[in-house]
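Notebook B, p. 112. Complex prediction, attempt 2.
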Amino acid sequence: MIFVTKRALSRRTLLRGVGTAISLPLLSAMVPALSATAPSLPKRIGFIYMPNGVAMNFTGMDYWTPRELGRDMQLSPILAPLAPFRDRVSVVSGLTHHQADALDDGANGDHTRATSSWLTGAHSKRTEGADVETGVSADQIAAQALGNDTALPSLELGIDQNFLSGQCENGYSCIYLNTLAWRTATSPLPTEINPRLVFERLFGDGGTVEQRTALAQENRSLLDSVTDEITRLSKRVGPADRRQVDDFVESVRAVERRIQAIESLTDETDVPPMQKPRGIPENFQDHVKLMYELQWLAFRSDLTRVTTFMLGRELNFRTYPEIGIDEGHHGLSHHQDRAEQLEKLARLNAYQTSLFAWFLEKLRSTPEGDESLLDRSIFLYGAGLSNPNLHAHVNLPLAVVGGTPSQHKGGQHIAFPEHTPMSNLLLSMLSMVGAEAVQLGDSSGPLTI
Amino acid sequence: MNRSFARIARIAQIVAATGVVLACESIKNEANTGKAVISSVCLDCHSDAERAGELTLEGRDLYEIASHAAVWEKVVRKVRSGMMPPIDGPKLDAESRAGLINWLEDELDRAAAMRPRPGRIPAFHRLNRNEYQNAIHDLLDVDIEVSGLLPSDDSSYGFDNIAGVLKVSPLLLERYLVAAEKVSRLAVGVPTGQESIDYYRVPDDLSQEGRLPDLPFGTRGGTSIDYTAPIDAEYVVAAKLARDMNEQVPAWSEPQHLEISVDGARVALFTLDGVKESPPEDERDLTNQIVQIRSRFRLSPADRAARNRADDDWQVRVQLSAGRHEVVAAFISTTATLDEGSRLPFERPYPGYINIPETRRGAYLRSIEITGPFDAPDRTSDRSRERVFVCAPAKDDQSERIAECARRILSTLVRRGYRRNVSDSDIEPFMNLYYEASAKEGFDEGIRIALKRLLISPEFIYRVEVNTDEEEGEPHHVSGFDLASRLSFFLWSSIPDDELLNVAASGRLGDRAELVRQVQRMVADPKSERFAKNFAGQWLFLRNLDAAVPVQTKFPDFDDTLRQGLRRETELFFASVVSEDRPVTDLLRADYSFMNERVARHYGIRGVKGSHFRRVTFDHDNPRRGLLGQGSILTVTSRPDRTSPVVRGKWVLENLFGTAPPDPPADVPGLVETDGAGTALSMRDRLAAHRNNPACASCHAVMDPIGFSLENYDAVGRWRVLGDAEETIDASGTLPDGTILTGPSELNEALVASDLFVQALTEKLLTYSLGRGLETFDMPSVRAIVRESARDEHRFSSLLVGIVMSPAFRMRSASSENSAVQVAAIGPVE
C-alpha cells in the first residue's frame, strides 16, 4: 500500500493495495525553482558513525588505513566497497580526540566519551545527574547556518535501541551514549531509530493540504498558550531550574519555526516516491538501508541539509549472523590482537561500508541541476575509537566522502601529524558547506584536505 | 557481619532521641576499635604520602566524623562490601571490621538525625514515555502504544525515570503534539476524516508450531491484537504470510487455513492451497536434505510467482464499534499425524539461517495490518467518552448550561491531569479554547481542543514541584499533592487516582497511618503490576531479554515464546514477593517460581501443561532458588555464545550487593581458548590468569567465585553437567570473606546472610522512587530504612513504608542547600 502524506490519495487507491512505489519524475522537473543556477543550491552535510571502533592494523594487514599516501592510495579492505567513488574519498589519518581520554576523571568512560566528543571535541562531564554537559556539536553549528530555510534544521538517526539496562558506563549517564548531536553543551538532541517516525517527521501524517494547514495553525496557537503557562511557572522556580524552562521554551520556538516552514512548503512539494515504512525492520541491513533512503529523500527534497547517523551505539552486542558473525559486536571489538578476531571485525566494518556505498550510489544517480546530489553533499564516515581493544582515541579512522574537488581533493590518503585534533577536521568540513566556525571543542584551526 | 537485636534497639534509641548521645560502654569501645583500625590498617596506604586511590585519612579529625561525611560514607561502603582492605593488603578480622563500620555509621547517622538533608529533585520532572502511556490510560481510558509515538528516554543510575536527564527537545515536543492530536481524537471520538494504518509485525523468531499463549484452542501460531477503534465504522484487516529467507511463500502439501476473528467471532478464513508433491527425479542428488525437501515441491516460475501473491487479497472488511476489540489471526491447527516434517523441528524458526521452512508444521504469519475508519457517518459513545464526558448538554440547552457543562468536564480533566486542585485561572485558558472551537465546530470539538491543550501542558508532561514563598532557605515538606504524585509514580508509574488526590487535598497525607494505608491500597491495586514491570524490569535487566541473541546454532530452541516467557516468569515472581509481602530475601531463596509449559520444559520440569503461568514449587533436590535460578537473569548475564562467570559475578555484585567493581584496564589480553597442545580449555582454566595475576586477582577474587558457582546454568539458563570443553563443571569457589561455595545454593545463602542485599535493594528502590541518584547524605536514610525493616523480617512493605516515610521522599531541600533544621520541627525518623 502507498501511505501518502502530502496529499491524501482516494480510498480506492489505498484499498487497491499497489505493491510497488510510484516512480516519479525527478525533483528538479517538478520544482522549477530548484533547477536554477547550480552554485546557489544548498550544500548538504552528513556524519556517519561506526560504533565500537574499527579493525585498524595488524601485522601484515592494514584493514582501515591505506598503506600508501597521497594519490597512490589503494583502498583498504574495509574501504574497498567505496571503490566506485574513489575519486571522492579522502582518507584522513592521524587525527585525535584528546578530550575523549579520561584525563582526570578515572579509569572508565572511553566508549561514552568517544560518542560525546566525536562531533563536539569537548570533554564530557563525568556525571549521571542533571549536570550532564559536553559541547555544541558540529552538525548543530551546520544546522544553524544551513537549517533556517529547511523544514527540519537537522535530522538525528540511529539504529540501536537505548532502553537496555547496563549498557552505559559507570559514572556517566546513558544520555551521552545515545546521540551525537548537542544543540547546546547541555541540550542533546535524541536520535530516532524508527523509520516510520522519521518518515512522519519529514512528511507529516497524511491528509489534504487544507487539513495539514488547519492542523498546523491549531498546533501553533496551542503552543502559544503553552508558552504563557511555562513563563508563569518559571517565576516560581529557583535559578537552578531555570535552565529546564529555557530548554522547554527553546524547543517550543523550534517547533513553531518548523510548523511555519511546513506551512510555507505545502504548495511546492510532491508526493514522496517511497512507501511509508511500517516500523523497524527485523534485520540490520534492511533497517540501515531504510534509514539511508530516508536521508537521501530528505536531502533530495531539501527537507533538511544536516544529518547524523549512528550505525549503532557504543557497547552494543549486536550479532551479524548474515555475515557469519555470532559474537556480540562489543566482545568482538576486544580482539586482543588475534588474527581471526580482527578478520571478523574487519568483515563487519566492510559490511557497514558496503551499505554506505549503497547510499552513495543513490546520491550519485540523483541529478541536481547539472551536478549530482552526491556532488552537493559531503560526509564524514568513521568512528570515535580507533583500536577498540585499547579504547584508543588517537589516529581515528575517518574518511571524507562526496562533495566536489573545491571542497576536498578526493582520491587520496592524507596523514596528519599524530595528535592533530579531529576538531580541526570538523572545522574544515563546516567551512566546506559555508557554516564557518572559529572554534569547536579543542580545535586549533582548520585543515586542508 | 550480623548485628544482635540489642544492638539494633540501641541504635534506634539513639537516633530517636533528640540529639542526645548515650555514652554506652560498647559504643565507646567501638569508637576506639575504629580509630585503632584506621591508624593501624588504613593509614598504610591512605596516608598523605601514599594517597592510594587519591584518598588520605591521615590527620583527619576522628572526633568529627560528620564534618567530612562524604568521605567517610565512601569508606564505610568500601569496607562493608569487602572491597577494602584489598585482597593483597593488610588483613582485617571480622570483629575489627564490624567495630570500624559500626562506629562510623553511628557517627554519620547521629549527625544526619540532627540535620536531615532530603536532597533535591529538579523542579520539572518529565514523565517518561511509560508513565505518559499509563497517565493517558488512567486519565482517559485510552490505550496507545507509546513506543511508536514518543522517542525512548535516557537513563541514569540504571533507571529511565531520573529527573535530571529527562530532557526536552524539539523532536520530543513535536511528538507530544502528534500524540495529543491522536489521543484527543480517540478520547472524544472525533475522527480526522483520514484513515490510519496500524501495522503489527510478528517477530521472526517466534515459533508458530503450537498454540500460543492466550490464543484460541484449536489454533496454531498467529497473533492477537488489542485494537482500539476510534469510532464506529468499518475497518479493513489484512494478513500477510511469513516468507522464507528468499522472500518466497513456502510450499506444503496440505492447505493452510488462517482464521481472522474479532472478539471471538470468526470474520474470515483464508486458505493457502496445498501443493502436489512431485515424485523425485532419478538424477537429482537426494542426499542433501534441503534439495530432498525442495524437490518434493517443484513449482514452475509462474506457479511460484502466483504463490507469492497468494495473500494479496487476504483482507476482510469488518464493522467495529468505537473502543477496544480483540483481533486474532491464527492458523487452524491440524493433528500432528499430518506433520510433513521428517524430524521434530527446533523451536526457533530458521536456526542458523538454514532455509527449510517446509520442515515446519505449516505456514506462519508475518503481519496484520488494520486500516480505517471507513464510511463512518456518526459516532456513538464508548468507554473513554464516558470517562471524559461527565455531563452532556441536552439538545435544546441554553448556551449557559452548555458552557457550564463544558466547565465541569474541563475542570475534572484538568484537576486529574495536573494532579492538584485547580482554580478558575487554571481553567481559563482551556475555556477560552473551548469557546473558540465550539463556536465554529460544536461542543465535542471544543472539548477536544481543550483536551489536546491539556496533553501538551507543562503541568501534565512534567511533575512540577515549585516553591512557595515561605519555603526558600529551609528543607521543607513537599505539598500533599506533590507527595501524592511521588507515591503514584513510584507504585503505579502513573498519575494519582481520585481517592489519592482527595486524601491529599484534605491534608491527611501528612499523617503516618494514612500514608501507610495508601501504600497498602496502592500495592493491592492491579496497577501495581507496572511497578514490577518497570522497577524489576530495569533492576533485573529484564528489558535486555528483547535484545538477547543466543547463537542460533548453539541454542536453536531459544525462540520468542521462551524469551517472553522467561521475562514473564521473573515479573510474576517479583510481583508475588511484593503482593504477598514476603521478606525481600525470598527474592533470593524462594523455592517457587512461575512457569508455563514452555518455560518448564526449558528447565526440564515435568508436569506443567498449557500456556498460562502458574506457581510451580521446586523439588527439594532442584537447586534453583530465587532470582539467580531464573533463565531471564541467567541469559542476560551471558554472552551470545557462552556463559561468562565474570559478567555474572559483576552483575551480582552491582545489582544485588550494590558494589560495583572498578572497570578493567582497556587492554586486558583475551581468554586463551586452548592450551599449548590445542585441547579446549574449561572456563575455569581460561580464567586462570584472573587468579594467578595479582593485579587481576584483587577484583576477580570477588567476582569470579560468584560466577563459577552459577556455571551449571548455561548461557540460556538450562542446568548442565558438562561445560564447553566437555569437562564436568566445577562450581566451587571461595569468597573473600572465606565463605566456601560449591554451587548456587551456597551463593544464595551467602547473599542472604550478608546484609548487603537488603541495603542494595533499598538503594535501588530509593533511587527509583525519588527519580534522582543517591548522594552520600542519603546513606543515613538508607541505613535507617534497613534497620527499621529488620524488625519486620525485611518484608517488602517495610521497605516501601520506610522509603515513603524517609526525609528524602517527603521533603525537599531548599535551593540554598546547606541550611539546618531543628529537630523539633521535623521530628525524628521513626
